[in-house]
Amino acid sequence: MAYIGNKPTVGNFQICDAIYVVNGQDAYTMQVGSVNVIPQSANHMLVSLNGILQKAGSSFTVSGSTITFASNLATGDVIDFIQILGDVLDLGVPSDDTVGAAQIKDDLISGSTELATAPADTDEFLVSDAGTLKRIDYNLITPRNIIQTVVSATQAVGSTSLTDLTNATLDITPASTSSKILILGRIQADIGNNGFGYAIYRDSTKIFETTEGYDVYNNTGNVRTVNTVCFLDSPSSTSELTYKYQVKTYDTDNVTFQNAGQSIITALEV
After folding, report:
1. What is the DSSP string of 75-135?
2. What are the pLDDT digits (tens) for 158-181?
3. Which end of the chain is more exposed for a tag (fewer CB within 10 A), N or C?
4. Cβ atoms 255, 157 nearer than 8 A
């Protein structure tokens, strides 16, 4: 790479604290600011003894923070300096917006490899959380369960008490206790001079019921209607759950469900 001006110098250059020779001793501890330092190797150092630059490997060796000279030093010898160069092949930190796809390894994130099938639940995506890049599992950002039951069979109900809408039921097993279950659907009915209301049950627990006991009412002759269902449940469970509709009529005259359409119950884990 060409540079305008001086080529930048990269390294972790450190000058060791002064070391005083002990007569008859060959090994000395290297420190910077009174803290032991460990060079990458003897080849990453410049050592001057008695004004002569020493050759790494033959004149001295390094083990951890200890430098050992080839022979014992004597009174009058002077260790002029020990300079640690750091990793002189380190490229340093690239400037902003200077790294492209060609500089990134294939096993890192490059977008060059296509995922030909649907991601596995443990595959990860990158998201920005308030400006911090984080990983998130695929199964945390996609619906984990979607179950639906479509009811077509005609059913006549003439009761002011809640009764099962036959076959309008489904089972779902949440993946997590923090999951919520969104119940969506429709209830189709011919109501005549009557009305009807409905309730949603989770297992034996009623989790929703129309406030007035009926959502739709008519007294002017036969009316065909569809009632939309939408309710968010928080079961706090990882066990299999059964959701179902129950219906009741305003009076004891029959309301005919699914007479000219279908009723649907859908459970979506979110």
Report:
1. TT--EEEEEE---TT---PPPTT---GGGS-TTSS-S-S---SPPPTT-EEEEEETTEEEE
2. 999 999 999 999 999 998 899 999
3. N
4. yes
Q: For residues 164 and 143, what is the distance between their CA atoms, to the nearest angstrom?
A: 28
β-partners of residue 155 are 257
Q: Which of 267, 264, 266, 263 is nearest to 155 (CA)?
A: 263
Return d(Cα 112, Cα 110) in angstroms, integer. 5
Classify each residue of 72-89 as buried b or exposed e, where b means 16 or more C-beta atoms within 10 Å of its C-beta: ebeeeeebeebebeeeee
Find the length of the chain.
270
- State how far Cα 28 lies from the chain centre: 50
Q: How is residue 54 annotated by DSSP?
A: P
CA distance linking residue 102 with residue 92, whole number of Å: 18
Q: How far is the C-alpha of 256 from the C-alpha of 265, rounded, in Å?
A: 18
pLDDT, mean of residues 43-71: 95
The structure's pTM equals: 0.52
Query: Are the CB atoms for 13 and 84 separated by under 8 Å?
Result: yes
Distance between CA atoms of 196 and 261, rounded to whole angstroms?
A: 16
Determine contact, residues 232/182, Cβ cutoff 8 Å: yes
